[in-house]
Amino acid sequence: MAIDLRSDTVTKPSQAMRDAIASAPVGDDVYGDDPTVNSLEERVAAMFGKEAALFSPTGSLANQLGIRSLVAPGEELLAETNSHIVRAELGAAAVFSGITTRTWPAKNGLLKAADALEIARPNSGPYLVSTTAIAVENTHNFGGGTVQPISEIAALKKGADEIGIALHLDGARIWNAHVASGVAFSEYGKYFDTVSVCLSKGLGAPVGSLILGSKEMIARTRVWRKRYGGGMRQIGILAAAGHYALDHNISRLVEDHARAKKIALALAAIDSSLIDPATVETNIVGLDLANFAFSASDFAASCKEKGLWISALGPKYARLVTHLDFDDAQTDEAIEILKRCLKA
Questions:
Q1: 22 by DSSP, 3-state: which?
Q2: What is the tens place of the pLDDT at every residue in 12-43?
Q3: By C-alpha distance, which of 261, 266, 267, 260 is closest to 322?
């Protein structure tokens, strides 16, 4: 069987998770009647110190709901150049919310508060677009799973408050950031007006994200979710998977991080230009193939022929993501395949 490291979204529910799904109490969530969804929303909101939460079928929708609640049509969102919101949500903020997105670049996606605040334009009057929100991604997917420094997040919050700009956290992999840094979920939550989290990446649920915020904001967001076609009915079966994931799959993320680090160290020993292992903080290994003759697509195809699936995310950039369906033996096997393909 092939080893699949294209993403941590490729995991399959365990039998215990399937049992939880099968026995979940359900109701009509559009009416607010699903007890399992309601308890999940209350649980996750409390984890991050927020008043309320709303279940979303996808992380992209959760992000867009957060953005829509903070930024009015014709206003501006700031985000890092390679953030998921900018690079991998197909211009949704412009399409659905009618807003402008402007970016700042950051090495490995790591936030420097001054860089974001420097380009902010609050209350710009009748000629310039006004900045009303800044988005931060933690961990940063295309930055290689890097963890945002809490000191920079705090500095961003202080500066944003001074000029009346809201903050959104794309916390799809905030679970990994928490495990790697030791920073509490509530500590992350206190700096942001809205927070999105995903249950179907490192935590292994089949479907599900949530958007968190104040009660008033989530009430508005519930309306927008329905407008976007995201209202669902008896989804306690999905929320039950989320409860199981939160109960069992957070602390074990340290195993994914260790396996990613092992891969990075092995490949850096072949050619140090491929990756700096010190930058591998969580479960993502990004490979720079600039010094190799083949493209990332050709490299991914070669790996696939040998039984290892990885992602080519740029002409010379390949990505591997470790997850709960990937064990120590497969780590060693993946390293050997990668070595052979790099030397081909």
A1: helix
A2: 999 999 999 999 999 999 999 999 999 999 99
A3: 260
In CATH, 15-248 is 3.40.640.10: yes
Its pTM surpasses 0.90: yes
Helix count (H) and strand count (E) of the chain? 14, 12
CA pair distance 124, 129, nearest whole angstrom = 6
β-pairing, 311-314 vs 317-321, is antiparallel
The residue ranges of every structural domain in the chain are: 15-248, 252-343
Q: Which residue(s) pair with 136 in the sheet?
A: 169
Strand partners, 134: 78, 167
* Contacts for 104 with CB less than 8 Å, ≥ 6 apart: 78, 80, 81, 115, 116, 118, 119
144 Cβ contact list (under 8 Å, min separation 6)? 108, 109, 275, 279, 280, 284, 285, 286
CATH homologous superfamily of domain 252-343? Aspartate Aminotransferase, domain 1 (3.90.1150.10)
Structure tokens at 88: 């991998």
